[in-house]
Specification:
The chain is an alpha/beta fold. Helix content is 42%, strand content 23%. The chain has helices spanning 12-24, 50-59, 61-69, 98-111, 141-144, 147-150, 205-210, 218-228, 230-233, 279-296, 300-330, 340-348, 360-371, 374-395; strands spanning 4-8, 29-33, 45-49, 72-81, 84-97, 115-117, 131-134, 153-156, 160-166, 173-180, 183-191, 197-203, 238-239, 250-253, 258-259, 262-264. The strands form three sheets. It has an eight-stranded mixed beta sheet. A six-stranded mixed beta sheet has the order 6-2-1-7-16-15. Helix 3 (61-69) runs antiparallel to helix 4 and helix 10 (279-296) runs antiparallel to helix 11 (300-330).
């Protein structure tokens, strides 16, 4: 059955959904509206892991190949704590410029017959569409029109952060922790092209005000951060996009994701803390799930309800991991004075719902013992998600 679909928001979620719907049935009438001019985008690079490529390969091999071809990859994590560096080998990760990713998806969508219209952003529900997709981000105008129905909730984080770039190309996912007279400040860095990396800087409210970052202008902030992270930057500058500013991350949730023929997708439906690096993956997985539901259910309300049920269930574990990851950094003094290799090991365990309740040294010892015994590894894999769901249910 031919349907008319309007996606409001030309980010990864909206473009991916448009591609998948056109692949399912070329007769579908699909339009993507993006309020920004073509070629402009916020952010620097985004991260993802092999699992996303494997999933995308099953839905659209051409997009999967193009994204992998234009990505950089790493398999190590490096932590710099004061003047000590420790390196761990881990899973293969990928970085790609957000601008490049959107170009690839928009080009693929157009090749399949999707209309991609830039400088075009309806603030109210478009008329005449069978399905309207709100893929217009955290501050979704379409969702805001019916905020009461969706049950939108934003929970602010405690720490301050700023999203920057640098010409220092990191060969591994890099963590740098610097001690100041006002507490710790740290950066996450990862390459996304041959000549640029993303660099996210974070600190507590006390460090933020103590260093004067609440009063500094952009130039003063960048100069101070370049000085604090001089060793890891190796003489390279930090770069800010126009309008870049310090923020507190807000975790957005919605009680329900659809209303009539309007459905939420990507950041309009949910956000997870940037420290788990899952935003782009979750947006594309939303698109895959919604495309599956629309193919499986001829009745639109049934399709949207099935999409919501499945994705909300799938997101429980990653949302829990993101909460605990954010809390790990908010409680950095609890871990930062461990020997660096132990601190880095617990950094890798920051998603655990058990870690906040077990003394760090004890948790490290137990986790090491578990890793050496297969029955205990299986128990940990079984127990972790169940503990996360139980703790999540207690918070609701």
């Amino acid at each position: 059955m031919r349907v008319k679909v309007v996606c409001v928001g030309g980010g990864p979620a909206g473009l991916c959904l448009a591609i998948l719907l056109k692949r399912q049935d070329p007769a579908h009438d699909v339009t993507v509206h993006e309020r920004n001019p073509e070629g402009s985008t916020y952010g620097w690079g985004v991260t993802y892991w092999r699992g996303l490529l494997d999933k995308l390969q099953a839905y659209d091999p051409e997009s999967a190949r193009a994204i992998e071809t234009h990505s950089v990859r790493w398999s190590d994590g490096v932590a710099h704590v004061r003047d000590v560096t420790t390196r761990h080998h881990g899973d293969e990760g990928f970085g790609i410029g957000r601008h490049r990713l959107l170009d690839l998806l928009a080009g693929r969508a157009r090749a399949l017959g999707v209309r991609v219209e830039f400088d075009s952003g309806p603030t109210g529900p478009p008329a005449g569409a069978d399905l309207v997709v709100a893929a217009d981000g955290v501050h979704s105008a379409l969702r805001t029109h019916r905020a009461g129905h969706f049950g939108t909730r934003i929970t602010p984080g405690r720490n301050h952060y700023i999203w920057l770039g640098t010409t220092r190309v990191f060969d591994a996912f890099t963590f740098a922790f610097t001690e100041t007279g006002h507490g710790w400040i740290w950066a996450y860095g990862y390459g996304y092209s041959r000549d640029h990396s993303t660099c996210v800087v974070e600190c507590s409210p006390q460090t933020f005000t103590g260093l004067g970052l609440d009063r500094a202008d952009e130039g003063e902030s960048l100069a101070l951060l370049e000085k604090l992270f001089a060793d890891v930057l190796d003489g390279h500058p930090l770069i800010a996009r126009p309008g870049a500013s310090w923020q507190n991350f807000g975790t957005l949730t919605n009680r329900t994701w659809h209303h009539g023929n309007l459905v939420l997708l990507g950041d309009a439906a949910h956000t997870t803390h940037y420290s788990v690096g899952a935003g782009t993956t979750l947006a594309l997985e939303d698109a895959m799930c919604l495309a599956d539901a629309l193919r499986a259910h001829a009745d639109l309300p049934e399709a949207l309800a099935a999409y919501e049920r499945r994705r909300q269930a799938e997101l429980l574990s990653v949302q829990s991991a993101a909460r605990y990851s954010a809390q790990w950094y908010e409680n950095l003094p609890r871990y930062i004075h461990l020997p660096p290799h132990r601190m880095f090991a617990l950094l890798g365990q920051r998603h655990s719902p058990l870690l906040p309740y077990v003394p760090p040294q004890l948790y490290y010892g137990l986790d090491k013992a578990v890793g050496q015994l297969e029955p205990l590894r299986r128990l940990k894999r079984w127990l972790g998600p169940r503990a996360a769901r139980a703790l999540h249910a207690r918070r609701r």
